[in-house]
Design goal:
Elements: E1 6-9, H1 14-26, E2 33-36, H2 40-48, E3 60-63, E4 66-69, H3 70-81, H4 84-95, H5 98-108, H6 126-129
Parallel strand pairs: 1-2
Antiparallel strand pairs: 1-3, 3-4
Helix pairs in contact: 3-4
Length: 142
């Protein structure tokens, strides 16, 4: 597993937790580690990459020492999942300019609240728990 492949997600967002499960179920090879944006590990990584640590407006993919947000994060997630999702990511990356993709992403991000939110982060499944970054974990940020 590549330590530099991390998905930071809103741990209180039902939709975001669904996205984590989507990635876990479809990954061709287990490449991703996960951390809630609100967790100690998530906050450390957000600070390291100069991203907001409050009022989240995106999930984040960290891969090979670079942080991707919004549309670019969604495309990178497709690449990391692999298979048909990588092919879809490649086509999307080629056909949709980042400016347009980020604009659409910004319009859709608030809609995630339609799925609800939790007061606390949801309890992870055993599959996710094994790949979840916690505060004391060592993880690559370079």
């Amino acid at each position: 597993m590549t330590e530099s492949s991390v998905m930071l997600f809103d741990g209180k967002c039902v939709f975001c937790n669904g996205a984590v499960n989507f990635a876990l179920e479809r990954e061709q090879q287990p490449m991703l580690r996960f951390a809630a944006l609100q967790s100690e590990a998530g906050q450390t990584l957000l600070q390291y990459y100069g991203l907001p640590t409050q009022k989240f407006s995106t999930f984040v993919i960290i891969h090979d020492g670079k942080a991707y947000t919004r549309f670019e994060a969604a495309v990178q997630l497709g690449y990391l999942i692999g298979g048909k999702w990588a092919r879809l990511a490649k086509a999307t990356d080629f056909l949709v300019p980042n400016l347009i993709g980020n604009s659409v992403y910004s319009l859709l991000w608030p809609l995630r609240k339609v799925f609800g939110a939790q007061e606390q982060c949801l309890l992870p499944s055993p599959q996710l728990r094994a790949r979840l970054l916690l505060g004391g974990d060592r993880f690559a940020v370079e």
